[in-house]
């Protein structure tokens, strides 16, 4: 079922619900510049077998409003959209699964609105905390000294997006996924090509907004509140991650009180078919709908 939510004046968000209406709600929050349909269909279906799954398009993606050029917003405003989606659908509390930027938005909700969450799962993201990382040997590493984004990803992100026609655009999109997918699993070009075709069809055009990269991100640290967390939290560790490589997941789990880490072998900063079954299993075990 598809529905539009009025999140703020002039801001409409596209949402989709799947699964039994009386099942525990589970909200999927995608990363920067990514619409809700970037969540792979097999993963959504696996989760919807046990949950009322909700996914939505961020501002400036998909079928939601594209307001940034006229009315710039801040990244924390995107976290307010998470609450607006829950309110608009009449959901008091939900499980939340956030990937990349979505994982940061999930942390903001975790810190600022813990009463709205049943659990949180954080994927491919970094901690909104100034707490140093403690290595297994007890030594500490300041946050600013943790591994950064790989040079290959940075170079790719720095390239201007130019219009050279649909064929060149699809090649650019596939190259982007090839880098984000890492080097531990074979690259499934067909699945990512199908995903991008689905995103373009859903959006109605092939333009990609740069709004999320330009939005102000000040005021996002939640060091103390994350350290006081009481919401059950799962951190997914992707060993081939090129954006927030290990030990970022371990650091995140140290910053969020009570969090635990589950590693998905071969996973990077993408969701190819090979990781979907173990990822769904990890999420469903965490939400308590699938037992060990």
Entry summary:
By secondary structure, the protein is of the alpha/beta class. The protein has ten helices and ten strands. 42% of the residues are buried.
What do these coordinates show?
The protein is 36% helix and 17% strand. The longest helix has 15 residues, at 166-180. The protein is globular, with a radius of gyration of 18 Å. The protein has 292 residues and is an alpha/beta fold. The model has no long low-confidence stretch (mean pLDDT 95). 42% of the residues are buried. α2 (75-88) crosses α3. It has an eight-stranded mixed β-sheet, sandwiched between helices. It has a two-stranded antiparallel ribbon with strand order 7-8. α1 (41-48) links the parallel β3 and β4 (52-56). It contains ten helices and ten strands. It has helices at residues 41-48, 75-88, 101-112, 151-158, 166-180, 189-203, 211-214, 223-227, 248-255, 273-287; strands at 2-8, 11-18, 25-29, 52-56, 94-99, 117-123, 133-134, 140-141, 233-237, 260-263.
- How can the largest sheet be summarized? 8 strands, mixed
Order of helices and strands: EEEHEHEHEEEHHHHHEHEH
Net shape: globular
Alpha-beta classification: alpha/beta
Cross-sheet strand order for the largest sheet: 1-2-4-3-5-6-9-10
Query: Can you count the helices?
Result: 10
Work out the strand percent: 15-25%
- Indicate the radius of gyration in whole angstroms: 18 Å
Helix % is 25-40%
Poorly predicted sequence stretches spanning 5 or more consecutive residues: none
Q: How confident is the prediction overall: mean pLDDT?
A: 95
Distance between the termini: 31 Å
Number of β-strand runs: 10
